[in-house]
Amino acid sequence: MSDYSTLIAGLSVAQQAALGSGASFWTTKAIGTIPAILLTDGPHGVRRQSGAAGDHLGIGASEPATCFPPAAGLSQTWDPELVQRIGVALGEESVALGVQVLLGPGVNIKRDPRCGRNFEYYSEDPLLTALLGAAWVHGVQSRGVGASVKHFAVNNAEHDRMRASSDVDDRTLREIYLRAFEYVVREAQPWTVMCSYNRINGVYAAENRWLLTTVLRDEWGFDGVVVSDWGAVRDRSAAVAAGLDLEMPATGGVTDADVVAAVTERGLDPAVVARAATRVARLATRANETDATARSFDADAHHRLAREAAGRAVVLLKNENDLLPLAPSALAVIGPFAQAPRYQGGGSSHVKPTRVDIPFEEIRSLAAGHQVTYSPGLATDSADDAEALRADAVRAAAEAETAVVFLGLTAEQESEGYDREHIELPTDHIDLLRAVVAVQPRTVVVLAHGGVVRLAPVADLAPAILDGALLGQAGGGAVADVLFGVVNPSGRLAETVPVRLEDTAAFLNFPSENGHTSYGERIFVGYRWFDARDLPVTFPFGHGLSYTRFDYSDLELVEGPEGVTTRLVVTNAGTRAGREVVQAYAALPGSRVSRPPRWLVGFAIATLQPGERYTVEIPVRRKDLAYWDVRQDRWVVESGEYAVSVGASSRDLRVDATVMVGGDDTAVPFTGESTLGEVMADPVAAEVATAVLAAAGPAGVSGTALGVDLLRMVASIPLERMVGFSGGRITRAQLDELLAAVNAARS
Ligand code: BGC
Q1: Which pLDDT does position 53 carry in this prediction?
Q2: Which among 603, 593, 40 is positioned nearest to 348, based on CA atoms?
Q3: Site to substitute for ligand 1 among 24, 26, 38, 41, most atoms within 8 A of C-beta
Q4: If 313 and its partner were Cys, which of 73, 205, 515, 651 is the partner (CB 3.0–4.6 Å)?
Q5: pLDDT of residue 493
Q6: 120 CA closest ligand 1 atom index
Q7: Is the CB of 230 under 6 A from ligand 1?
Q8: Which is catalytic among the residues 41, 229, 357, 624?
Q9: pTM of the entire structure?
Q10: Is the pLDDT confidence value at 706 over 80?
Q11: Are the CB atoms for 228 and 1 separated by under 8 Å?
Q12: 116 lines ligand 1 (CB under 6 A)
């Protein structure tokens, strides 16, 4: 930072403190030569409010901008290259709209399907989240616009989000909840990180020195600005001391004065204020170096990109008897979402789109020359006659060759700011589907929702299901493309669809109680949980069908210094071109720590013509095989034989092989607290210990007399207790000698 300290030369403590909070809801202050900057949401479009002066809550109208698929949909592409291109487009729109920092991506883990904000997050899996998040940051920042990775950290529920403490152990934090943040910070160097509202193990994120300084800066090397989530700061001077640089939004100077008072009266080190000010000054300077002369963006090109992304995001969940793709024919399109699509979530990320594709019209244009009818089928207003609407839809379905029924959740049923209490689709949606299927066996369901919904009732009724989650403004066109096979579906679920809410990992620990959320399921989140408990699911993580078929063969694994190269051949064995998301999962039977039966370690995309064979290479980084060792506070790759399975979903694994990986597990020294069992489990230590203990061990005791396996029983005794148990045969001095000998033999 010293290189940049000249930026604040000559500024008083008061001016430095003032740099650290907003001038308005979306802007920082211009002080001296340091310019102001504008930050705004994010993440799937630019929400640039024009009338900011009259709006202190940030909820007023915004300028039109492309609404790309929100994270819930975008993640289903499993496509970092595509996400990066969207990032570039978002960067261009930001420049055109005068935005210097775009508030995204959201890389929190989808811990529980009820979290109201899951639509803004990518996945239940940290690696998928990490790769997509980093791609987003690379894209946006390539246009000279800063990203703000959020919400740091462990913000996995909306309920009581401004107070509740996420109580979570270190291993779980590192392996699940911090992992994507770490990856994005290290790989993509975001200009800013946004700290969350909640507490982590009792300490507010904004005041959490361990999080904001020890981990984020000292360990990961973050050199940007930590900005608060809007209104997340309770005690600004405590936050500044912990590592917060910029409090948003404006506080009318009140907290700036508090920081000055903390320096003059309460011993706050002025150097921390200067450091924060320097970082904000650097951000502002850097942001203002961007060539911001472009005053417009190519809305047509961005709409086409949004359509391409939405097409890749659609997941074909089910397709009995190859009902899809449809040939142009007489269709009954049913459901209000066919005319007024649900394509984004509610809250701070809500974008005013440049245009919206209407699914019904897009379908009609691809079925040109055939009769395509629209019936709402559902009441959306209290004045509507629900029975009559349903009867009309059923009649239309019976008369058509195929029915396409749009179902899902409305924006108000899930949103930022509150969680859902259940994961059911509305009853009238299921009733409508049942009535339609009763007269029309050729029925396709198209789903729209931000969080996961229970799909067993839909899967029981409908022969074909397309799941778009949320597809953004071009979703209507993309759905039509997939229905008619213009696009061969290749989206994959980024979140498991459970059979029942009660089966999910955090079911009993969600949301918080008395201000605390226990992360009692630990690392067993999402498919890690369902697999470890061997629970059936309706659709597994990674699932998604295609109109063609892919074969997997010739898997080879090669260990190298960076990790394991996974190579295999994927063949398009069907009759259409298609895109396959090839997924690699690892397992380590016999690991010294509890592990899920398998976890995602990499994936690759193969786009193949019919009959084409392709050698896919998936690099698996050592870090993705490691676990967080709480004894040593570091990542450890265990030595051992890892099993790697590759397939089309977490439960459709086609080829597997094993590979010996040399670990970096160093011997943790034994102490008096180590147990006999631990010592005996180590071959080198066991040899030394056996010799010493044989000479001094309790004589004449046999397990048979007690009906026990004596060795197993004594295995849990800490060595230091042997001093007493041995009746004087082993002294403390001898024990210390033994430990020294054992530790020396192992080092
Ligand atoms: C949200 C952030 C958002 C900010 C500014 C907060 O309420 O949690 O994600 O960036 O508001 O709108």
Answers
A1: 45
A2: 40
A3: 41
A4: 73
A5: 99
A6: 9
A7: yes
A8: 229
A9: 0.96
A10: no
A11: no
A12: no
Per DSSP, the chain holds a count of helices (H) and strands (E) of: 23, 28
The Cα–Cα gap between 7 and 275 comes to: 11
> What number of other Cβ atoms are within 10 A of residue 740's Cβ?
12
User: Which residue, by CA, sits nearest to atom 3 of ligand 1?
Assistant: 348
Report the pLDDT value the prediction gives residue 54, as an integer from 0 to 100: 42
Separation of CA 349 and ligand 1 centre (Å): 8
Q: Whose CA is nearest to atom 5 of ligand 1?
A: 230
pLDDT above 90 as % of the chain: 88
Two tokens, residue 91: 């960067």
The CA angle 26-53-291, to the nearest 5 degrees, is 50
Helix (H, G, I), strand (E, B) or coil at 574: coil
Mean pLDDT of 735-743: 91
What average pLDDT does this structure show over 415-431? 95
Q: What mean pLDDT value characterizes the chain?
A: 95
Rounded (to 5) percent helix, strand, coil in the chain: 35, 20, 40
Distances (CA, A) of 689 to 678, 686, 745: 11, 5, 11
CA–CA separation, 580 and 137 (whole Å): 25
Confidence of residue 711 (pLDDT cuts 50, 70, 90): confident
- Checking if the pLDDT of 580 tops 90, the result is yes
Cα within 13 Å of Cα(702), Cβ side = 3
* Closest residue to atom 4 of ligand 1, CA basis: 230
Residue 488 structure tokens = 């061969």
CA-wise closest residue to 197 among 101, 100, 108, 105 = 108
Count of Cβ atoms closer than 10 Å to residue 46 Cβ: 32
Please provide the size of the chain in residues: 747
Rounded to whole angstroms, the Cα distance separating 129 from 307 reads 22
Across the range 149-175, mean pLDDT stands at: 97
Question: How far is the C-alpha of 650 from the C-alpha of 493, rounded, in Å?
Answer: 10
Interval between CA 231 and ligand 1 midpoint (Å): 9
What's the longest Cα–Cα distance across the chain? 98
Q: Whose CA is nearest to atom 8 of ligand 1?
A: 229
CA of 103 to the centre of ligand 1 (A): 8
Predicted local distance difference test score (pLDDT) of residue 701: 53
DSSP for 433-494, written as a single string: HHHHHHH-SSEEEEEE-SS----HHHHHH-SEEEE-S---TTHHHHHHHHHTTSS------S
Query: Ligand 1: which atom is nearest the Cα of residue 103?
Result: 10
Q: Which amino acid is at 462?
A: A
Report the atom number in ligand 1 closest to the C-alpha of 148.
10
C-alpha to C-alpha distance for 347 and 18, rounded to whole angstroms? 29
- Which own/partner pairs from 655-658 qualify as long-range (CB within 8 Å, at least 24 positions apart)? 655/552, 655/553, 655/554, 655/555, 655/568, 656/555, 657/555, 657/556, 657/557, 658/557
The per-residue pLDDT for 723 is: 87
Characterize 398-410 residue by residue with b for buried, 16 or more Cβ atoms within 10 angstroms of its Cβ, and e for exposed.
eebebbbbbbbbb
What average pLDDT does the segment 233-238 reach? 98
Cβ(348) – ligand 1 distance below 6 Å: yes
Cβ of 150 closer than 6 Å to ligand 1, yes or no, is: yes
Active site residue 624: no
φ/ψ of 103, rounded to 5, equals: -80, 90
- Tell me the average pLDDT across 528-547: 98
Q: Where are the beta strands (DSSP E) in 484-532?
A: 497-498, 516-518
CB atoms within 10 A of CB 627: 20
CA of 249 to the centre of ligand 1 (A): 10
